Amino acid sequence: MNATNTESNSSSMDGLKWAVTIVLLVAIIVGNYMFGETVHVVARVLILLVMAALAVLSAALTEKGKTFVGFAQDSRLEVRKVVWPTRQETIQTTLIILAVSTIVGLVLWGLDGIFVRVVAFITTSI
Questions:
Q1: Secondary element (H or E) of residue 117
Q2: What does the pLDDT average to over 48-76?
Q3: Which residues of 45-73 are buried (b: 16+ CB within 10 A; e: fewer)?
Q4: Does pTM top 0.85 for this prediction?
Q5: CA separation for the pair 48, 32 (Å, rounded)
Protein backbone atom coordinates (compact mmCIF):
# COMPACT_ATOMS: atom_id res chain seq x y z
CA MET A 1 0.00 0.00 0.00
CA ASN A 2 2.92 2.33 0.70
CA ALA A 3 4.32 1.84 -2.84
CA THR A 4 0.94 2.80 -4.31
CA ASN A 5 0.88 6.04 -2.31
CA THR A 6 4.41 6.86 -3.43
CA GLU A 7 3.48 6.24 -7.08
CA SER A 8 0.35 8.34 -6.72
CA ASN A 9 2.27 11.22 -5.11
CA SER A 10 5.01 10.95 -7.70
CA SER A 11 2.57 11.02 -10.62
CA SER A 12 0.63 13.97 -9.18
CA MET A 13 3.89 15.83 -8.56
CA ASP A 14 4.95 14.99 -12.13
CA GLY A 15 1.73 16.51 -13.38
CA LEU A 16 2.42 19.64 -11.37
CA LYS A 17 5.99 19.82 -12.66
CA TRP A 18 4.80 19.43 -16.27
CA ALA A 19 2.20 22.15 -15.66
CA VAL A 20 4.93 24.47 -14.35
CA THR A 21 7.05 23.66 -17.39
CA ILE A 22 4.20 24.42 -19.78
CA VAL A 23 3.31 27.65 -17.97
CA LEU A 24 6.94 28.79 -18.15
CA LEU A 25 7.17 27.99 -21.87
CA VAL A 26 3.90 29.81 -22.59
CA ALA A 27 5.13 32.75 -20.50
CA ILE A 28 8.32 32.84 -22.58
CA ILE A 29 6.35 33.01 -25.82
CA VAL A 30 3.78 35.51 -24.58
CA GLY A 31 6.36 37.65 -22.79
CA ASN A 32 8.61 37.79 -25.82
CA TYR A 33 5.66 38.83 -27.96
CA MET A 34 4.23 41.40 -25.55
CA PHE A 35 7.48 42.99 -24.35
CA GLY A 36 9.35 42.74 -27.64
CA GLU A 37 9.33 46.49 -28.21
CA THR A 38 9.39 47.88 -24.67
CA VAL A 39 12.15 45.90 -22.92
CA HIS A 40 15.80 46.16 -23.94
CA VAL A 41 16.96 43.19 -26.03
CA VAL A 42 19.71 42.08 -23.65
CA ALA A 43 17.38 42.16 -20.62
CA ARG A 44 14.69 40.30 -22.54
CA VAL A 45 17.12 37.59 -23.67
CA LEU A 46 18.46 37.14 -20.14
CA ILE A 47 14.95 36.85 -18.70
CA LEU A 48 13.96 34.37 -21.41
CA LEU A 49 17.10 32.28 -20.83
CA VAL A 50 16.44 32.13 -17.08
CA MET A 51 12.82 31.12 -17.67
CA ALA A 52 13.89 28.51 -20.22
CA ALA A 53 16.44 27.10 -17.75
CA LEU A 54 13.73 26.88 -15.10
CA ALA A 55 11.42 25.10 -17.56
CA VAL A 56 14.15 22.60 -18.46
CA LEU A 57 14.92 22.04 -14.77
CA SER A 58 11.24 21.52 -14.00
CA ALA A 59 10.92 19.00 -16.84
CA ALA A 60 14.14 17.23 -15.83
CA LEU A 61 12.80 16.64 -12.32
CA THR A 62 9.89 14.53 -13.60
CA GLU A 63 10.16 10.76 -14.02
CA LYS A 64 10.31 11.03 -17.81
CA GLY A 65 12.82 13.84 -17.48
CA LYS A 66 15.05 11.73 -15.24
CA THR A 67 14.81 8.91 -17.77
CA PHE A 68 15.80 11.29 -20.56
CA VAL A 69 18.74 12.70 -18.58
CA GLY A 70 19.95 9.16 -17.89
CA PHE A 71 19.63 8.30 -21.58
CA ALA A 72 21.57 11.44 -22.55
CA GLN A 73 24.35 10.58 -20.09
CA ASP A 74 24.55 7.01 -21.40
CA SER A 75 24.62 8.29 -24.98
CA ARG A 76 27.45 10.66 -24.14
CA LEU A 77 29.38 7.76 -22.61
CA GLU A 78 28.85 5.66 -25.74
CA VAL A 79 30.00 8.48 -28.03
CA ARG A 80 33.23 8.68 -26.04
CA LYS A 81 33.83 4.99 -26.79
CA VAL A 82 33.65 5.52 -30.57
CA VAL A 83 36.96 5.27 -32.39
CA TRP A 84 36.86 8.13 -34.87
CA PRO A 85 38.83 7.82 -38.13
CA THR A 86 41.92 9.91 -38.68
CA ARG A 87 42.00 12.69 -41.25
CA GLN A 88 43.99 10.50 -43.65
CA GLU A 89 41.52 7.60 -43.33
CA THR A 90 38.61 9.98 -43.97
CA ILE A 91 40.26 11.43 -47.09
CA GLN A 92 41.14 7.98 -48.45
CA THR A 93 37.63 6.66 -47.86
CA THR A 94 36.12 9.74 -49.51
CA LEU A 95 38.36 9.33 -52.56
CA ILE A 96 37.46 5.63 -52.84
CA ILE A 97 33.75 6.47 -52.68
CA LEU A 98 34.17 9.17 -55.35
CA ALA A 99 36.09 6.78 -57.61
CA VAL A 100 33.57 3.95 -57.24
CA SER A 101 30.65 6.35 -57.76
CA THR A 102 32.29 7.69 -60.92
CA ILE A 103 32.92 4.19 -62.27
CA VAL A 104 29.37 3.06 -61.54
CA GLY A 105 28.01 6.25 -63.12
CA LEU A 106 30.06 5.67 -66.28
CA VAL A 107 28.94 2.02 -66.49
CA LEU A 108 25.28 3.04 -66.10
CA TRP A 109 25.73 5.82 -68.68
CA GLY A 110 27.25 3.30 -71.11
CA LEU A 111 24.49 0.75 -70.52
CA ASP A 112 21.88 3.47 -70.99
CA GLY A 113 23.46 4.43 -74.32
CA ILE A 114 23.49 0.79 -75.45
CA PHE A 115 19.87 0.23 -74.40
CA VAL A 116 18.75 3.43 -76.17
CA ARG A 117 20.40 2.28 -79.39
CA VAL A 118 18.95 -1.25 -79.08
CA VAL A 119 15.43 0.09 -78.44
CA ALA A 120 15.79 2.59 -81.28
CA PHE A 121 16.96 -0.19 -83.61
CA ILE A 122 14.06 -2.45 -82.62
CA THR A 123 11.40 0.28 -82.90
CA THR A 124 12.61 1.62 -86.26
CA SER A 125 12.88 -1.80 -87.87
CA ILE A 126 9.31 -2.80 -86.99
A1: helix 87-125
A2: 92
A3: eebbeebeeebeebbeebeebeeeeeeee
A4: no
A5: 8
